[in-house]
Amino acid sequence: MNRTRPAGRHDARRPETVPSQRLRTPRRVRPHQWFAERLLAVLSGQRPVHWMLGHTIGEAYDQLAELAPATPLRSRGARPVIRMCRGAQPAPGVVEACASIAAGEQVRAMAFRLEQGPDLRWRCAAVELGSAPARHP
Q1: Number of domains in the chain
Q2: Separation between Cα atoms, residue 108 and residue 129, nearest integer Å
Q3: How far is 129 from 112, CA to CA, in rounded Å?
Q4: Is the predicted pLDDT of residue 137 greater than 50, yes or no?
Q5: Is residue 77 classed exposed, middle or buried when 0-12, 13-18 and 19+ CB atoms within 10 A define those classes?
Q6: Which residues of 24-42 are buried (b: 16+ CB within 10 A; e: fewer)?
Q7: Is the model's pLDDT at 101 over the cut of 90?
Q8: Is residue 111 included in any domain, yes or no?
Q9: Residues spanned by the domain of 113
Q10: What is the CATH number of the domain that holds 49?
């Protein structure tokens, strides 16, 4: 009888070891994913619009200040979450991204543009939301 294996196990193989957290390479969050989370927090009313002050350029802050008071991504039931976020780089230093936001049964679209400044920081340059979902009587 082999005492190193659990009862009921008939082979001598040992479980593989899992690499420690220090050895795993951390998954880098892409700029468009990071911004999608921040924009969702502002447009759902979880964070104030001035939270984005240092992360916007041009008209983007004005767009957010206009959209945010209506909390267009707030839901009455489930907390809104990002289902999908994709980005494309049409030019160096530019990312155009879209995200789908789900809250319960409702799904909304959000598009935004990021531009990288001379300091290599990404900033949001434009934000658009898909039209409000249709209400069924």
Answers
A1: 1
A2: 8
A3: 9
A4: no
A5: exposed
A6: eeeeeebbbeebbeebbbb
A7: yes
A8: yes
A9: 31-129
A10: 3.10.450.100
